[in-house]
Amino acid sequence: MPVTQTAPIELHYWPTPNGWKISILLEELGVPYEVKYVNIGKGEQFRPEFLAIAPNNRMPAIVDPEGPGGAPISVFESGAILQYLGRKFGAFYPADERKRVEVDEWLMWQMGGFGPMLGQNHHFRIYAPEKIPYAMDRYLNETHRLYGVLNKRLGGRAYVAADEYTIADMAIIGWAQGWKNQGMDLEEFPHVKAWKARLEERPAVQRGLAVGREERERQASLADDKDAQKVLFGQRAR
């Protein structure tokens, strides 16, 4: 029986690849949600009220006022949020165990590789105050390898897992938006290019990627904002 959501889900968010995962899923689900911006360039992720729901001081996080048993629940880590919402609403996360394992495999692949490695690549190519050839080559090569893995997987497939559009696709697509700054050429990865275009035709994906765009555009470019870089790249426990 379909689950209805009456009270909005709180989405603690900033428009980044990890944030987009959740905004895309919420748009696909069509459930009410309220965005609570967490400006990571200004250090808002260290506010006590945010740390209470996201102790790793990373967004996104959600608060569902209609959680299990009707009681509120908070969830941090984008992969855990995707799984929670997929289970709750019975959508984009197949109930069949074999298919669910496949989705989980590719979700964990993104969480452990196609995310952290691409992020490090982007950091050392664009933001690092000192250009370190070893680090730049290491992460560029790993990024290239991961795009190759994804390209091979998508050969003859419309989506990455379970023969259907799932949270695994949503987890990956936001990170693929940055292919240029990651030093990639999508012409090398035709199956990724076709998959990316296919997902970007979906209205909910378009809306999810647009959430917070104006907020982000109001800020100075991160490449030029030294104060924001100190916050983001010099983080210590507080």
From TrEMBL:
Matching Pfam families: GST_C, GST_N
Biased composition regions of type Basic and acidic residues, renumbered to the chain: 212-229
GO molecular function: transferase activity
Keyword terms, alphabetized: Transferase
InterPro entries: Glutathione-S-Trfase_C-like, Glutathione-S-Trfase_C_sf, Glutathione_S-Trfase, Glutathione_S-Trfase_N, GST_C, Thioredoxin-like_sf
Signal peptide: none
Lineage top rank: taxon: Bacteria
Domain called GST N-terminal: residue spans: 6-93
PROSITE patterns tied to this protein: GST_CTER, GST_NTER
Domain GST C-terminal stretches: 96-220
CDD domains: GST_C_YfcG_like, GST_N_Ure2p_like
Annotated spans, Disordered: 210-238
Family of the protein in this entry: Belongs to the GST superfamily.
Protein name: Glutathione S-transferase
Lineage: Bacteria, Pseudomonadati, Pseudomonadota, Alphaproteobacteria, Hyphomicrobiales
